[in-house]
Amino acid sequence: MTEINREQDRTIAKIDQDLVASVVPELKQELQGIVDQGEDLAVDLQGVNIIDSKGIGLLIATHNSLQESNKSLEVLNPSEDVLNLFRSMRLDKHFSIS
Fold this sequence. Notes:
Elements: E1 2-7, E2 10-15, H1 24-36, E3 40-44, H2 53-68, E4 73-76, H3 80-88, E5 96-97
Parallel strand pairs: 2-3, 3-4, 4-5
Antiparallel strand pairs: 1-2
């Protein structure tokens, strides 16, 4: 489901399917493992067309967990629809979107 790559000071998790309720439990475990390692995290959404409320909740919870240890979440390559959703929810004010 997720391709994990490590760069110098961060981990990149590339999600290759829609971020919806049916995939959130498994993805949550994967992301929690990264958070527990104490590294900055980038989530690449290039393969994501749809994000539902559970997916947004997962990103927010991951951001909050990382922030507790002074680490950051960056979202990479969101589709135009996903980017517009993030902006309408003002999530672009909480974590970096590239």
